[in-house]
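Researcher: Please translate sequence to structure tokens.
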Amino acid sequence: MDVEMADIEKTIHTKENTICIFGTGDFGRSLGYKLLQVGYNVVFGSRSQDSTPLLPKGVAVMDYGEAAQRSSIIVLAIHREHYYFLTNLSHILNGKVLVDVSNNQKVNQYPESNAQFLAHLVPNAKVVKAFNTVSAWSLQSGLLDASRQVFVCGDDSNSKRLVMDVACRLGLTPLDQGSLLVAGELENYALHLFPMWRLPFFISIGLTAFFFFYCLITDVIYTSIKEGKDYSFLIAVSITNRVFPIVSLTLLALVYLPGIIAAFVQLYRGTKYRRFPHWLDRWMLCRKQLGLIALGYAFLHAIYTLIIPLRVYVRWWHNNYLISQVRENKTYEELNTTLAWYSDIYMSLGILGFGLLILLGITSLPSVSNAVNWREFHFVQSKLGHVTLLFCTAHTLIYGWNYFFDIHYYAWCLPPAGTLSLIIPCTVLVLKFFLITPCIDRKLTKIRQGWERSPKHRK
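Model: Translation complete:
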């Protein structure tokens, strides 16, 4: 009797430590190899029982029915179109955990998700959606250069727990997303191409195109028509190096503008218990991406600025200026200290602003933000963020102090591009200064702590 009980316990333990994988494709093989590494027994179910050299050593290849009997957890590494054969195995799959890892070719390709379709085909099985956001490549590379998050959903909590335990042993981070009703969103998520970057990308491209053509009109086309000179060579470096900082400063201001708007909305409503408009919600969700793109543009501006002394045009101008000074026997009698102050302050503010912008970018990385508490994160991203915007705005102001408001620098009555770049940053800084005044700040803090001006605003 004791021997029989020991055999039963051994069989149960073997089933719990064995994972069955239907399908011997790239994902199935990669997952099987990773499962073997962490100590699981792996058995493959396939139409052909002939083992291939591509499969990891130490695995068994059987027909689907026999393989399913070896494990209580079955991973379906096959496409939805091939699910129909599972109806013939329904008596074997009863009570087993079926892990659906499939994705579709298009968003909302079918009326129901693949996981829900599977649950209808095998109603007595426990279907769990998982691993569909993990690629075969990331499994093969040891998860060193890929996201470790695994979204899990299913109607049976015990089945989800078993799958999440497997994910943890693989070194992944499982996140419970709820019931199978969420499966469609998880399948669509895997098909989205940079969903959180799309709006910031289009904003960046739009601003870049606008300011590029604006500078092209004011610096090249205007000069060519009015003076008959060809300055088209300025497009490669000069105009490009003017557009990059302008777009970077504008994007940085757009990072903090939605927070300013949200504060005024809460002050107007007198409550925090009402949703912001959809466009404002979406804007606030992509602030991190806007900031990182601003950092990228600032980095390009720094590189382009370093190569300025190497340009033929700059060397020609400098040598020509020296020769003219020699011919006219002219020298500077004394240093213009005012101009020296302006130059040094302008460069110092630019370096400080760029350094703080790098700090903001570093702290936005998950590995860094997870290592600080909320107060530290808020201090860097909010308070230091506004200081960064202040430095970068002052850098631009001092750089163009002598021509921003000089009508001689206005081509066809168009202000210099640098003047336009200051509109949004200066607006953000002025409004932020208004919000941090004691009387306004106290009221806004009360609202964010739950105070309401009138209960009717909650309706």
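Researcher: Any highlights?
Model: Strands lie at 18-22, 41-45, 60-62, 73-76, 97-100, 126-129, 149-154, 173-178.
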